[in-house]
Amino acid sequence: MTTKARARLRELLDEKRLIVAPGVYDGLSGQLARRTGHAAAYLTGAGVAAAGFGLPDIGLVTQTEMVERARMVVRALGDVPLLADADTGYGAPINVIRTVGEYEEAGVSAIQLEDQAFPKRCGHLPDKELVSTDDFVRTIDAVVDARTDDGMLLIARTDARGPLGLDEAIRRANRYAAAGADLLFVEAPQSADEIERIAAEVDAPLLLNLVIGGLTPEQSEQRMQELGFAVAIHPSAVLGRATLGVLTALCELRGVAVDEFLPTKPEEFFNLVGMAEWFALGQKYQPGTESES
């Protein structure tokens, strides 16, 4: 039997009105999203990485850590549906099968998987690498076979726009829809025209990601409704304001100006939680890099 939150998400989608889902990442943001009357919420992987673990969104958070955070936020939200980021599924199709079971048991209403290669990175950062379309279709097959409640929806995200262009991103989105994904998420379109093309050319319910300072231009709710988008997620809306508050308080306590610390785009935000240092470590251990003896 499905949960009340999953049934509610289906009802909202059937109403054909845009679902606006703020990004949440802990018990407090979940509770406040429910108490302020939001219809749904989005468990942001970037927010969990940064706020929960002090890490950038480059594939460092594990499946078990994300599941525990999802379970916490589901409790806080009650009957409000949670759409939950699950990165690449944390491995091969057999790992995806376990991920689906864990997310389903945690009570999420929709699980989001993407076609990046591991380790993934934030969709609004450069140099993303993808798995093949066929490989990701096998991931979708694993989800469809593994879930025991069809009420838990699958959001399939393609990151092809950056490395391969919009035409390939649209082609992949339609392929993933045909394979059984319930909602399609073309990450990081870079203009209003690109957003309109996605709406016109992807034959499936659509999700749009609006990141503060990201690659996708802001869109009004009215415009997204006109284009037929089913869901708009705002993963950084809450996290960005929270970060500003923390930085302001800390700088006031030290008597220093906050301006030099304030990020204006995702890369700058992730550098606040060590992305440059992690990238340097990653480069140190790249193939062909000799360790000093």
UniProtKB/TrEMBL annotation:
GO terms for molecular function: oxo-acid-lyase activity. It comes from the Bacteria. Gene3D superfamilies: Phosphoenolpyruvate-binding domains. InterPro entries: ICL/PEPM, Isocitrate_lyase_ph_CS, Pyrv/PenolPyrv_kinase-like_dom, Pyrv_kinase-like_dom_sf. It holds the Pfam family PEP_mutase. This is Carboxyvinyl-carboxyphosphonate phosphorylmutase. The lineage of its organism: Bacteria, Bacillati, Actinomycetota, Actinomycetes, Mycobacteriales.
